[in-house]
Design brief:
elongated, about 70% helix, mainly alpha, single chain
Length: about 350
């Protein structure tokens, strides 16, 4: 039997045939990396040499850099990470595959770690989104405050007055807080993936998507109601089915099946519904003015933001091997949403100004 030596372990010609067979399916389902014979051989050897006894574990952790200890990288996870790179180099150098044919391992791409950060690009862009959301939201709040008459600007009346200037001030603020929470967990998750950080990332992201759907439903109905109606009660009543579904969604993922496909479909349905309602809302305002004036209307900021998000969603739905082992489709999605956040809150500011002018005219 022909045997080829690879580092400290060996692979047979039959193993190479198995690898090549797996590679033919990579374009269809790129998650075979952890099942490759080369990877399994490397992992088994690494685990035996470093993680198989208390003495070896102590030696491993004594030699582990402090930044890896800080992010709680275990011996087994270190072995998996090192063997992923060993396998990738083998596939590139020995088998001769292309960079775009690199397989996933455990359903994930392999990235260059930077100071123990698992997905540096996605983590950095998530942090940028967090900062942008906070800056844009506080700028919106200050813009609303400036519109409040001085005689109503006392602390006790501030929230009520802000809500008078923009009836959706509270909903917008809650949405911003949920978004910032989601970006915090997105940053943490991309820094270090664990059971907790993964769940919090998914659950927080869905809370933003579903609440955004709720916010445009409320806005669409609210705009058509008589001013004398109790709109607060209506908002609470409308909120209950959204909250109920969110709790059901979390319960299903936690206790029935953590189904990534189910979660993705729920996000897509809510997101697509939100997009359609916002575009209809914008059209209702734009149709009242001549076509040549559309580009100067603030509703176009709404249209541009919604369209850009859906274009960026193509990166999320069409995954590809990371460029330079740093930038994958998901990180590009996070990068693109930074600018959209600014446009979105700029739209809310302009809408608040327009609403305030209408109130003064009435």
């Amino acid at each position: 039997m022909i045997t080829i030596k690879l580092g400290q372990f060996s692979i047979t010609k039959w193993s190479i045939k198995i690898i090549i067979l797996f590679l033919t399916f990579i374009r269809v389902q790129a998650s075979f990396g952890d099942n490759l014979a080369h990877f399994q051989g490397c992992l088994g050897l690494c685990m035996k040499q470093n993680c198989s006894s208390a003495v070896k574990l102590n030696e491993f952790y004594e030699q582990q850099p402090i930044y890896l200890k800080m992010f709680l990288w275990t011996c087994e996870e270190e072995c998996k990470y090192m063997c992923q790179w060993d396998t990738i180099l083998f596939l590139l150098d020995e088998i001769g595959i292309e960079l775009n044919q690199i397989p996933q391992f455990y359903g994930k791409w392999t990235f260059y770690r930077i100071l123990g950060i698992q997905e540096p690009a996605s983590a950095f862009f998530s942090l940028c989104n967090l900062i942008t959301t906070y800056v844009a939201w506080t700028h919106y709040c200050r813009s609303v405050i400036k519109l409040i008459p001085e005689e109503e600007a006392s602390i006790s009346k501030w929230t009520q007055s802000a809500h008078t200037i923009d009836p959706h001030f509270t909903v917008i603020s809650i949405n911003a807080i949920l978004a910032m929470n989601a970006w915090i967990w997105s940053t943490v998750f991309h820094i270090r993936e664990t059971y907790l950080t993964e769940k919090m990332d998914y659950f927080s992201a869905f809370s933003v998507v579903l609440f955004s759907f709720y916010s445009i439903v409320v806005r669409s109905i609210d705009d058509k109601l008589d001013k004398s109606m109790d709109k607060l009660k209506l908002k609470v009543i409308l909120f209950m089915p959204f909250l109920s579904y969110y709790l059901y969604h979390i319960h299903y993922l936690l206790f029935i099946s953590f189904d990534y496909s189910f979660n993705m479909k729920a996000n897509l349905v809510a997101g697509f519904s939100t997009m359609c309602l916002w575009l209809f809302w914008a059209y209702e305002r734009l149709r009242l003015i001549p076509l040549d004036q559309w580009k100067n209307h603030h509703a176009m900021l709404c249209v541009l933001s919604v369209v850009l998000v859906k274009i960026l969603l193509l990166f999320e739905l069409n995954d590809f091997a990371p460029l330079f082992f740093i930038f994958d489709a998901h990180s590009i999605w996070h990068w693109g949403t930074i600018g959209v956040t600014y446009l979105w809150f700029r739209f809310f500011e302009r809408e608040a100004i327009v609403q305030n002018k209408r109130l003064k005219m009435d």
